[in-house]
């Protein structure tokens, strides 16, 4: 049984996410947090796709669970 990840970002797809150059913060239910720079997102997830269906495949390096994460965006501040 796996839980769906919680997505706290205004993006439907990874392509929209990276186009906005926002970094991704992934916080697992065990408390482990990982920041992924926008430039690494498409490479890490092997291409574009729906955010929730891509993120659910991530496995936490701390506790080994999938889908127990809260994913949020860290917008780049623009001048
Ligand atoms: Zn974890």
State the main characteristics:
3 helices; 4-stranded mixed beta sheet; binds zinc ion; 79 residues; alpha+beta; single chain
Descriptive overview:
The chain has 79 residues and is of the alpha+beta class. The chain has one domain (6-74). The protein is 23% helix and 24% strand. It contains three helices and four strands, in the order E-H-E-E-H-H-E. The protein has a four-stranded mixed β-sheet with strand order 1-4-2-3. Strand 2 and strand 3 (33-36) form a beta hairpin. The longest helix is centred in the middle third of the chain and has 7 residues, at 38-44. 19% of the residues are buried. The model has no long low-confidence stretch (mean pLDDT 92). The structure holds zinc ion (ZN). Residues 28, 30, 32, 60, 62-63, 65 line the site of zinc ion.
The tally of structural domains comes to 1
**SS content category:** alpha+beta
The number of helical runs is: 3
Terminal Cα span: 45 Å
| Rough outline | globular
Adjacency order of strands in the biggest sheet: 1-4-2-3
Mean pLDDT: 92
- From the alpha-carbon coordinates, what is the Rg to the nearest angstrom? 12 Å
Tally the beta strands.
Answer: 4
Question: What percentage of the residues does DSSP assign to strands (E)?
Answer: 15-25%
- Main sheet, how many strands, which sense, barrel? 4 strands, mixed
Give the topology.
Blueprint: E1 6-8, H1 14-19, E2 23-28, E3 33-36, H2 38-44, H3 51-55, E4 69-74
Parallel strand pairs: 1-4
Antiparallel strand pairs: 2-3, 2-4
